[in-house]
Design goal:
Number of helices: 14
Distance between the termini: 32 Å
CATH class of the largest domain: Alpha Beta
Number of strands: 11
Shape: elongated
Strand order of the largest sheet: 5-4-3-6-7-11-10-9-8
CATH topology of the largest domain: Transposase Inhibitor Protein From Tn5, Chain A, domain 1
Strand content: 15-25%
Structural class: alpha+beta
Length: about 375
């Protein structure tokens, strides 16, 4: 299968799928590629979580599917979508997804992008020595959209996958937030070269930098810092978060190995979050440190740090609980990766509906009501 991607415009999902070319001779194809892909995405939106359910749903909703594609031979049995999803080049499919997701964001782009990894725990194959699929995803925190994903190679880690993901994204003007694993000069430079800014967490995996920042904030002059304190209370828990930022970064301008070069490209702001939690008569305090190429005030810094964690409860948690991703046992070919992308397609589309229903109820409604599913599939202007 080969593909050629056009410049993204306000096109339907099916139009984006059409750029993935099926190299088989049309006269020998009983179930064309666009029909199989449409079936898989629609059934996933409608609450189907495996190929048996997908095929059964398609048989029940054949009339609806024929509004969009011919389905001359009806819908395929479960073996066809399994074979197709195992064979599609996941890099091409991911590129198709990213082009579509960029369109969903509109010309204005996004302000905050969170990057984080997630493992589909049951996709491992111990008999073949195959590890579980681990995907690094990009999440537009304000728009609540998945922007792209990159699989981590079995012999590598997130540090190699993140630059590959960043290279596919439209990041100009965005602030990119990543946890401590990405706190290295190469990733910082990749983000700034894309016309974006970074906000990277600093933890004990960078012991020297972590210690230097701790020492600085322990004795920082009052005129060098800006502070914002926020309080959250609920469920018997009181959390006080003190956010401190400073633009005094000259002392971090070099490293021991390269003393004349910047340690991190464009470093402008350093920050600290001191979180004190009181619960059940006990008090605990934690400090977290960050570096950024953006000139951040305390309020924007606090918002960006807090927003980063929406990728956990609005993406990873939803995929596990609502889409049952952690229960998936796909272990053959590219099936696990490609179906993860399908779930991202489905989640973005379901979230695009402007109503008060939950994700769970929207998926159920899409399975019950063809008109509601049709509304989900239509591209909504942003």
């Amino acid at each position: 299968m080969e593909t050629a991607f056009a410049k993204p415009t306000r096109r339907s999902l099916l139009d984006h799928f059409s750029v993935i070319k099926d190299t088989r001779q049309p006269c020998k194809v009983m179930y064309p590629l666009p029909e199989v892909l449409l079936l898989v995405v629609c059934a996933t939106i409608a609450g189907c979580d495996d190929y048996d359910e997908i095929a059964d749903w398609g048989e029940a909703r054949l009339e609806f599917l024929r509004r969009i594609q011919p389905y001359y031979w009806g819908v395929p049995c479960e073996d066809w979508p399994r074979v197709v999803m195992n064979r599609i080049d996941p890099d091409l499919f991911a590129a198709c997804f990213t082009a579509w997701a960029n369109q969903q964001c509109g010309e204005a782009g996004v302000a905050l992008v969170a990057i984080d990894g997630k493992t589909s725990r049951r996709t491992h194959d111990r008999g073949k020595g195959r590890k579980a699929l681990h995907l690094v995803s990009a999440w537009a925190t304000g728009e609540r959209l998945v922007l792209g994903q990159e699989a981590v190679d079995e012999k590598s880690n997130e540090i190699t996958a993140i630059p590959a993901l960043l290279a596919r994204l439209a990041l100009k003007g965005a602030l990119v937030t990543i946890d401590a694993i990405a706190c290295n000069p190469t990733i910082a430079r990749t983000i700034t070269e894309a016309g974006a800014d970074y906000l990277l967490a600093v933890k004990d995996n960078q012991p020297t930098l972590h210690g230097e920042m701790r020492s600085y904030f322990d004795s920082a002059p009052a005129d060098e810092v800006e502070t914002l304190t926020l309080v959250d209370k609920g469920h018997g828990r009181l959390e006080t978060r003190r956010h401190v930022v400073s633009g005094a970064v000259d002392w971090m301008s070099g490293s021991r190995r390269y003393p004349g070069e910047p340690r991190f490209a464009g470093l402008t702001t350093i920050g600290m979050v001191e979180s004190t939690v009181e619960k059940a008569g006990q008090t605990s305090t934690e400090r977290r440190f960050y570096i950024s190429s953006a000139a951040l005030g305390a309020a924007r810094f606090a918002h960006a740090v807090r927003a980063h964690w929406t990728i956990e409860n609005q993406l990873h948690w939803v995929l596990d609980v609502q889409f049952k991703e952690d229960l998936s046992r796909l272990r053959t070919g590219h099936g696990a990766y490609n179906m993860a992308i399908v779930r991202h397609f489905a989640l973005n589309l379901v979230r695009g509906m402007d109503d008060r229903r939950s994700i769970k109820t929207r998926r159920k409604r899409a399975g019950w009501d063809p008109e509601y599913l049709s509304a989900i599939l239509k591209p909504a202007p942003r």
